[in-house]
Amino acid sequence: NMLGCTEASLLYSCLPLVYGYSMTPPILSITEEEYIINAKETLNITCRGQHPLEWLWPGIQEDTVQTGKEGDSEIVSINGVRTVKEEDCEGTDAKPYCKALTLTGTQANDTGYYRCHYKYINAKIEGTTAVSTYVFVRDFEQPFINKPETLLIYKKENICVPCLVSIPDLNITLLLTTSVLYPDGKNILWDNKQGMLVPTLLIKDSWYVQCETLIDKKPFKSSFFIVHIAGNELYDIQLFPRKAMELLVGEKLVINCTVWAEFDSGVNFQWDYPAKQV
Question: Where does the record place the Ig-like domain (predicted)?
Answer without folding.
Answer: 25-132
